[in-house]
Structures are given as structure tokens and as C-alpha cells.
């Protein structure tokens, strides 16, 4: 509740906002807005899609999905094959390294000297000695 004193009546500023009263003849502003927005909504709406386009789109998406799944399964199968071949290669490489090490030990200098001594050969010493050949 607002109480005003008669003495301060002249200090009150007038209301600058003017409110128009609705006419009884014309439609109310609320009705005018609904008619206007109804027209705007009909223009903004999504375009109509025909059923055959939806069916064709669904078939195309299904075909692409099937191709994708086929690709995924074939890739997994190839990955399994590659892993199997890689394991086989690693086993063959390990066997090769083992045989090469054994071969290198067999032909290595220490092994050759040992086998020569077992057969009765005498170590000639360092190779820096000069060999003199006498002619008869």
C-alpha cells in the first residue's frame, strides 16, 4: 500500500510509460502474436521427406555398415595371420642365432688350436718370425 502526502503531490514525476488500452473491436495483442508466430513457424519448419527417400537412405546406410563390418573382420583375420607369421619368424631367428653361435665356436681360433693340439700339431709361435729357405 502506497501512502502519499498532499504536501508532496507536486514532487511526484508523471509516468512516462504509456500503456495503450486494448480495443474491444480488434483482437487482443496475445492473439495477434500467436497468428504472427504461427506463420513464422510454418516457414521455419523442416522440409517434408518422402518415404522412398527414407527407405533408400536406410538401405545405403545398411550397405555401408555391412561393408564396414566385413572390413573389420577381414582386418582382424589378417592381424591374426601376421602375428602367427611373426611368432614363426622369431622362432626361426632364435634357432638360426643358436646354430650360428655353435658354428662360430666350432671354427673359432680357440677351438681350432685345441683340436690341432689334440691331433699332435705344435704351435708355431708368433707369425712375426722370418722364414729362411735354404737351397741345396
TrEMBL record:
Which superkingdom?
Bacteria
TM region positions: 52-69
- Which controlled-vocabulary keywords does the entry list? Coiled coil, Membrane, Transmembrane, Transmembrane helix
Annotated coiled-coil positions are 75-102
> Region Disordered: what ranges?
1-42
- This protein's name: Uncharacterized protein
Amino acid at each position: 500500500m502506497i501512502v502519499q502526502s498532499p504536501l508532496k503531490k507536486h514532487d511526484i514525476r508523471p509516468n512516462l510509460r504509456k500503456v495503450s488500452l486494448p480495443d474491444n473491436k480488434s483482437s487482443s495483442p496475445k492473439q495477434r502474436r500467436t497468428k504472427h508466430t504461427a506463420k513464422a513457424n510454418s516457414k521455419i519448419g523442416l522440409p517434408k521427406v518422402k518415404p522412398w527417400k527414407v527407405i533408400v537412405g536406410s538401405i545405403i546406410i545398411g550397405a555401408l555398415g555391412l561393408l564396414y563390418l566385413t572390413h573389420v573382420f577381414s582386418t582382424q583375420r589378417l592381424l591374426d595371420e601376421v602375428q602367427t607369421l611373426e611368432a614363426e619368424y622369431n622362432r626361426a631367428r632364435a634357432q638360426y642365432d643358436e646354430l650360428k653361435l655353435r658354428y662360430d665356436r666350432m671354427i673359432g681360433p680357440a677351438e681350432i688350436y685345441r683340436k690341432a693340439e689334440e691331433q699332435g700339431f705344435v704351435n708355431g709361435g708368433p707369425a712375426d718370425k722370418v722364414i729362411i729357405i735354404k737351397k741345396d
